[in-house]
Protein backbone atom coordinates (compact mmCIF):
# COMPACT_ATOMS: atom_id res chain seq x y z
CA UNK A 1 0.00 0.00 0.00
CA UNK A 2 1.57 3.33 -1.01
CA UNK A 3 2.07 5.88 1.75
CA UNK A 4 1.66 8.82 -0.63
CA UNK A 5 0.51 9.35 -4.22
CA UNK A 6 1.95 12.15 -6.35
CA UNK A 7 0.50 13.72 -9.49
CA UNK A 8 3.01 14.54 -12.19
CA UNK A 9 2.64 17.70 -14.32
CA UNK A 10 2.81 15.68 -17.59
CA UNK A 11 1.77 12.08 -18.24
CA UNK A 12 4.37 9.36 -18.05
CA UNK A 13 4.51 5.69 -18.97
CA UNK A 14 7.34 3.25 -19.50
CA UNK A 15 10.64 2.52 -17.82
CA UNK A 16 12.76 5.49 -18.93
CA UNK A 17 12.66 7.45 -15.66
CA UNK A 18 14.45 7.82 -12.34
CA UNK A 19 13.80 9.35 -8.94
CA UNK A 20 16.71 10.99 -7.14
CA UNK A 21 16.65 13.37 -4.14
CA UNK A 22 12.84 13.60 -4.31
CA UNK A 23 12.93 14.60 -8.01
CA UNK A 24 11.35 12.40 -10.67
CA UNK A 25 12.99 12.69 -14.10
CA UNK A 26 11.34 11.39 -17.28
CA UNK A 27 10.84 12.07 -20.97
CA UNK A 28 7.67 13.76 -22.20
CA UNK A 29 7.57 14.37 -25.95
CA UNK A 30 10.82 16.12 -26.81
CA UNK A 31 11.53 17.41 -23.28
CA UNK A 32 13.20 15.92 -20.29
CA UNK A 33 11.03 16.73 -17.25
CA UNK A 34 12.40 17.07 -13.71
CA UNK A 35 9.63 17.45 -11.15
CA UNK A 36 10.44 17.89 -7.46
CA UNK A 37 7.85 15.95 -5.47
CA UNK A 38 7.84 18.22 -2.40
CA UNK A 39 8.14 21.72 -3.86
CA UNK A 40 6.19 20.79 -7.01
CA UNK A 41 8.65 22.80 -9.14
CA UNK A 42 9.14 21.53 -12.68
CA UNK A 43 12.11 22.04 -15.01
CA UNK A 44 12.34 21.23 -18.73
CA UNK A 45 15.35 20.39 -20.89
CA UNK A 46 14.96 19.92 -24.66
CA UNK A 47 16.42 16.65 -25.84
CA UNK A 48 16.98 15.54 -29.43
CA UNK A 49 16.36 11.83 -28.82
CA UNK A 50 15.67 9.47 -31.66
CA UNK A 51 12.20 7.97 -31.86
CA UNK A 52 13.85 4.55 -32.14
CA UNK A 53 14.33 2.55 -28.92
CA UNK A 54 17.63 2.99 -27.12
CA UNK A 55 18.10 -0.76 -26.54
CA UNK A 56 17.13 -3.84 -28.51
CA UNK A 57 13.89 -5.35 -27.24
CA UNK A 58 12.92 -2.10 -25.49
CA UNK A 59 10.50 0.72 -26.22
CA UNK A 60 12.37 3.32 -24.12
CA UNK A 61 13.97 6.23 -25.96
CA UNK A 62 16.19 7.34 -23.04
CA UNK A 63 17.74 5.89 -19.94
CA UNK A 64 17.81 8.18 -16.89
CA UNK A 65 19.80 7.55 -13.73
CA UNK A 66 21.94 9.16 -11.07
CA UNK A 67 25.24 8.44 -9.42
CA UNK A 68 27.37 10.25 -6.86
CA UNK A 69 28.10 13.02 -9.39
CA UNK A 70 24.68 13.91 -10.73
CA UNK A 71 21.95 13.06 -13.18
CA UNK A 72 22.83 11.05 -16.31
CA UNK A 73 20.72 10.69 -19.46
CA UNK A 74 21.63 8.20 -22.20
CA UNK A 75 19.92 8.36 -25.62
CA UNK A 76 20.45 8.08 -29.38
CA UNK A 77 20.66 11.38 -31.29
CA UNK A 78 17.79 11.86 -33.71
CA UNK A 79 20.05 13.36 -36.40
CA UNK A 80 22.63 10.56 -36.70
CA UNK A 81 21.66 7.79 -34.23
CA UNK A 82 24.86 8.22 -32.22
CA UNK A 83 24.82 7.09 -28.59
CA UNK A 84 24.94 10.23 -26.43
CA UNK A 85 25.30 10.73 -22.69
CA UNK A 86 24.37 13.92 -20.84
CA UNK A 87 25.36 14.84 -17.32
CA UNK A 88 22.89 17.38 -15.92
CA UNK A 89 22.57 19.34 -12.69
CA UNK A 90 19.55 17.86 -10.94
CA UNK A 91 18.11 21.13 -9.57
CA UNK A 92 18.19 23.26 -12.73
CA UNK A 93 18.94 20.74 -15.55
CA UNK A 94 21.94 22.77 -16.71
CA UNK A 95 24.23 20.68 -18.87
CA UNK A 96 27.45 19.71 -17.10
CA UNK A 97 28.82 17.48 -19.84
CA UNK A 98 27.98 15.75 -23.13
CA UNK A 99 29.67 12.72 -24.65
CA UNK A 100 29.14 10.98 -27.99
CA UNK A 101 30.09 7.35 -27.49
CA UNK A 102 31.10 5.39 -30.57
CA UNK A 103 29.28 2.13 -29.92
CA UNK A 104 26.02 0.36 -30.58
CA UNK A 105 23.72 -0.31 -27.60
CA UNK A 106 21.22 -2.46 -29.51
CA UNK A 107 22.41 -5.65 -27.78
CA UNK A 108 22.04 -4.09 -24.31
CA UNK A 109 18.89 -4.51 -22.26
CA UNK A 110 19.79 -1.61 -19.91
CA UNK A 111 22.64 0.49 -18.53
CA UNK A 112 23.59 2.60 -15.53
CA UNK A 113 26.31 5.02 -14.38
CA UNK A 114 28.41 4.48 -11.23
CA UNK A 115 31.30 6.79 -10.25
CA UNK A 116 31.35 8.41 -13.68
CA UNK A 117 31.54 5.05 -15.47
CA UNK A 118 28.88 3.79 -17.90
CA UNK A 119 28.03 0.09 -17.40
CA UNK A 120 26.13 -1.95 -19.99
CA UNK A 121 23.59 -4.55 -18.89
CA UNK A 122 23.21 -7.39 -21.38
CA UNK A 123 20.61 -10.14 -21.23
CA UNK A 124 22.39 -13.07 -22.85
CA UNK A 125 21.71 -16.76 -23.43
CA UNK A 126 21.28 -19.33 -20.67
CA UNK A 127 19.40 -16.86 -18.43
CA UNK A 128 22.52 -14.84 -17.70
CA UNK A 129 22.72 -11.10 -17.08
CA UNK A 130 26.11 -9.56 -17.81
CA UNK A 131 27.29 -6.15 -16.54
CA UNK A 132 30.39 -4.58 -18.03
CA UNK A 133 32.14 -1.20 -17.65
CA UNK A 134 31.99 0.49 -21.06
CA UNK A 135 32.99 4.16 -20.87
CA UNK A 136 34.86 6.34 -18.36
CA UNK A 137 33.34 9.82 -18.61
CA UNK A 138 36.10 11.55 -16.64
CA UNK A 139 38.92 10.06 -18.70
CA UNK A 140 36.77 10.43 -21.84
CA UNK A 141 37.60 6.95 -23.12
CA UNK A 142 36.14 3.56 -23.85
CA UNK A 143 37.07 0.90 -21.32
CA UNK A 144 38.44 -2.50 -22.28
CA UNK A 145 39.91 -3.88 -19.07
CA UNK A 146 38.01 -7.18 -19.34
CA UNK A 147 36.00 -6.79 -16.12
CA UNK A 148 32.58 -8.38 -16.36
CA UNK A 149 30.03 -9.23 -13.70
CA UNK A 150 27.55 -12.01 -14.45
CA UNK A 151 24.80 -13.83 -12.64
CA UNK A 152 22.19 -16.43 -13.45
CA UNK A 153 18.49 -15.63 -13.26
CA UNK A 154 15.45 -17.67 -14.19
CA UNK A 155 14.15 -17.32 -17.74
CA UNK A 156 11.02 -15.36 -16.71
CA UNK A 157 13.06 -12.78 -14.77
CA UNK A 158 15.49 -12.18 -17.63
CA UNK A 159 12.64 -11.76 -20.12
CA UNK A 160 10.97 -9.20 -17.86
CA UNK A 161 13.96 -7.05 -16.94
CA UNK A 162 12.48 -3.56 -16.74
CA UNK A 163 15.22 -1.40 -15.30
CA UNK A 164 18.65 -1.35 -13.72
CA UNK A 165 19.31 1.60 -11.38
CA UNK A 166 22.32 2.44 -9.23
CA UNK A 167 21.45 4.05 -5.88
CA UNK A 168 24.31 6.37 -4.89
CA UNK A 169 23.12 6.64 -1.28
CA UNK A 170 23.09 2.92 -0.47
CA UNK A 171 25.65 2.07 -3.19
CA UNK A 172 23.46 -0.73 -4.43
CA UNK A 173 22.54 -1.86 -7.91
CA UNK A 174 18.81 -2.50 -8.13
CA UNK A 175 17.39 -4.58 -10.96
CA UNK A 176 13.62 -4.50 -11.45
CA UNK A 177 12.16 -7.56 -13.18
CA UNK A 178 8.84 -9.42 -13.20
CA UNK A 179 7.60 -7.72 -10.04
CA UNK A 180 10.83 -8.39 -8.14
CA UNK A 181 13.65 -6.06 -7.09
CA UNK A 182 17.09 -7.63 -6.97
CA UNK A 183 19.44 -5.51 -4.89
CA UNK A 184 23.18 -5.99 -4.52
CA UNK A 185 26.10 -3.93 -3.18
CA UNK A 186 27.99 -2.62 -6.18
CA UNK A 187 31.49 -1.24 -5.60
CA UNK A 188 33.92 0.03 -8.12
TrEMBL record:
Assigned keywords, A-Z: Secreted
Superkingdom per UniProt: Eukaryota
One GO BP annotation of this record: signal transduction
Start and end residues of each Olfactomedin-like domain: 1-188
InterPro entries xref list: Olfac-like_dom, Olfactomedin-like_domain
GO cellular component: extracellular space
Name of the protein described by the UniProt record: Olfactomedin-like domain-containing protein
Amino acid sequence: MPSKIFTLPYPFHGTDATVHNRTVVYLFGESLIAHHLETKTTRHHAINASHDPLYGGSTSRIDAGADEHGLWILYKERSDGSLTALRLHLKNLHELGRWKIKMDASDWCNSFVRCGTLFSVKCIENSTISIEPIFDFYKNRLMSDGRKYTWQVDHETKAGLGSAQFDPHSRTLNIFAQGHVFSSQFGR
